[in-house]
């Protein structure tokens, strides 16, 4: 049966994690995998999550199936978090999914079901799984100019020119905040320009929101996508609770679609979900719903999230200073948002960091600043300065 299988494609992030695990050097440093770590190097269960889980274990009345839309209270919470507490979500269909990964695939299948020849435009560079998921649904993927690696800034003119060329068969996939892998976010003026072009040209905006609260704060991080949501009659959104609720392995996410045909869209999403995973796992979604329904748990969660955000900002600042002290301009680290930035390093320099210094980065130079212990910043800066010399 399986002798004709071609070997599996290598995932550039998971392969770094595997190589790191296999490395026996005790001083090894993992800046690869995209999880938040505290000062002790742990990815903690957030206190509000722990508390909600205990309440749930004590009082959950049943583990019977949920419906195809998953946890409805969770879906309302996601709408309020992403669109705003007061926003009118009546034009949106929201369904819970197994993580944002599940939402990406569901939405890709929806696009393919309604316009098979649609092209999905992703940023250069983008999240490693964007192109594979879109392509697995049969969609064509194109890349738009985004990051200028040398300066860590937006290639604004080229980016806006690419968007200006999009039409009715095009889907523009944007990162809601804390762009993965670059940390480079759009300004509010950029979001406004995209909204104006979407209205005039009829392309479909599609926002992936995986790091709300990791950039400038919960509300601020959603400001850009809310400009699109207010202006555009149709829009796609996928949402992850992996990072800001620390629910990674609980696979907690949502797919949202704004359209003039909500009943049609809802029915098709249900059909697509039914013949795939059928229903999403409930545990993480119920935890989120419980946290958002309780003033105490919500305040506790927000305070812990804010502390995580400030810790990442401090890491950014310290690494930028340490690199500057070694003659490497790195102010872009202070401008970027969230867990990731990209160091402008060649493939050979990244390999040297791994082989000579046991420092692991993702191909392309992405580092996870939340994986960086303060006590090791000077050591990292020294190593980067050494491999940067030509
Ligand atoms: N989108 C982006 C931009 C991501 O970085 C990730 C992974 N962190 C995902 C989607 C997938 O997230 P999830 O764990 O919810 O599947």
List the helices and strands and how they pair.
Elements: H1 12-22, E1 29-30, H2 47-59, H3 72-83, E2 92-98, H4 99-114, E3 119-124, H5 130-136, E4 140-145, E5 147-148, E6 153-154, H6 156-164, E7 170-175, H7 188-201, E8 204-209, H8 218-231, E9 235-240, E10 252-258, H9 262-274, H10 283-293, H11 295-325, H12 332-335, E11 340-342, H13 347-357, E12 359-360, E13 366-368, H14 377-388
Parallel strand pairs: 1-12, 3-4, 3-7, 7-8, 8-9
Antiparallel strand pairs: 2-10, 5-6, 9-10, 11-13
The structure holds 4'-deoxy-4'-aminopyridoxal-5'-phosphate.
Residues 34, 99-101, 127, 175, 180, 208, 210, 240, 242, 248, 253 line the site of 4'-deoxy-4'-aminopyridoxal-5'-phosphate.
CATH topology of the largest domain: Aspartate Aminotransferase, domain 2
Hetero groups: 4'-deoxy-4'-aminopyridoxal-5'-phosphate
Low-confidence stretches: none
Sheet/helix structural class? alpha/beta
What is the chains' assembly state? single chain
CATH architecture of the largest domain: 3-Layer(aba) Sandwich
Supply the number of helical segments.
Answer: 14
The whole-angstrom Rg is 21 Å
Number of discrete domains: 2
Overall helicity: 40-55%
Beta-sheet strand percentage? 5-15%
Main sheet strand line-up: 2-10-9-8-7-3-4
Mean pLDDT: 96
What does this structure look like?
With 390 residues, the chain is α/β, with parallel strands linked by helices. It folds into two domains: 12-45 and 297-388, Aspartate Aminotransferase, domain 1, CATH 3.90.1150.10; 49-295, Aspartate Aminotransferase, domain 2, CATH 3.40.640. It contains 14 helices and 13 strands. The protein has helices at 12-22, 47-59, 72-83, 99-114, 130-136, 156-164, 188-201, 218-231, 262-274, 283-293, 295-325, 332-335, 347-357, 377-388; strands spanning 29-30, 92-98, 119-124, 140-145, 147-148, 153-154, 170-175, 204-209, 235-240, 252-258, 340-342, 359-360, 366-368. Strands 2-10-9-8-7-3-4 form a seven-stranded mixed sheet, with helices on both faces. The protein has a two-stranded parallel ribbon with strand order 1-12. The chain has a two-stranded antiparallel sheet with strand order 5-6. Helix 8 (218-231) links the parallel strand 8 (204-209) and strand 9. Helix 3 (72-83) crosses helix 10 (283-293) and helix 11 crosses helix 14 (377-388). The longest helix has 31 residues, at 295-325. It is globular. The mean pLDDT is 96. The structure holds 4'-deoxy-4'-aminopyridoxal-5'-phosphate (PMP). 4'-deoxy-4'-aminopyridoxal-5'-phosphate is lined by residues 34, 99-101, 127, 175, 180, 208, 210, 240, 242, 248, 253.
């Amino acid at each position: 049966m399986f002798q004709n299988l071609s070997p599996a494609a290598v995932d550039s992030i998971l392969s770094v994690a595997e190589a790191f695990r296999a490395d026996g050097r005790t001083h090894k440093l993992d800046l690869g995998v995209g999880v938040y770590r505290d000062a002790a190097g742990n990815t903690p269960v957030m206190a509000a999550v722990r508390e909600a889980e205990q309440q749930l274990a004590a009082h959950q009345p049943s583990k019977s199936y949920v419906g195809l839309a998953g946890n409805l209270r969770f879906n309302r919470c996601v709408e309020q978090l992403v669109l705003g507490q007061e926003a009118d979500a009546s034009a949106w269909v929201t369904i819970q999914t197994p993580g944002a990964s599940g939402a990406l695939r569901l939405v890709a299948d929806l696009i393919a079901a309604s316009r098979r020849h649609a092209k999905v435009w992703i940023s250069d560079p983008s999240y490693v799984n964007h192109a594979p998921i879109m392509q697995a649904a049969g969609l064509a993927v194109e890349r738009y100019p985004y990051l200028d690696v040398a300066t860590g800034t937006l290639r604004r003119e080229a980016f806006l020119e690419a968007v200006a060329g999009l039409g009715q068969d095009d889907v523009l996939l944007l990162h809601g905040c804390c762009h993965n892998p670059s940390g480079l976010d759009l300004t509010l003026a950029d979001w406004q320009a995209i909204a104006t072009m979407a209205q005039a040209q009829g392309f479909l905006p599609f926002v992936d929101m995986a790091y709300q609260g990791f950039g400038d704060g919960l509300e601020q991080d959603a400001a850009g996508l809310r400009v699109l949501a207010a202006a555009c009659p149709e829009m796609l959104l996928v949402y992850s609770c992996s990072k800001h609720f620390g629910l990674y392995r609980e696979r907690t996410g949502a797919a949202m679609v704004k359209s003039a045909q909500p009943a049609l869209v809802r029915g098709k999403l249900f059909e697509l979900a039914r013949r795939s995973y059928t229903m999403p796992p409930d545990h993480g979604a119920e935890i989120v719903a419980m946290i958002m329904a309780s003033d105490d748990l919500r305040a506790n969660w927000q305070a812990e999230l804010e502390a995580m955000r400030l810790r990442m900002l401090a890491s950014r600042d310290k690494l930028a200073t340490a690199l500057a002290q070694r003659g490497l301009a790195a102010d872009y680290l202070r401008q970027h948002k969230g867990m990731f930035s990209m160091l402008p390093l060649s493939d050979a320099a990244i390999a040297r960091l791994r082989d000579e210094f046991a420092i692991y980065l993702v191909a392309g130079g992405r580092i996870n600043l939340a994986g960086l212990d303060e006590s090791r910043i000077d050591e990292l800066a020294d190593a980067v300065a050494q491999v940067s010399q030509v």
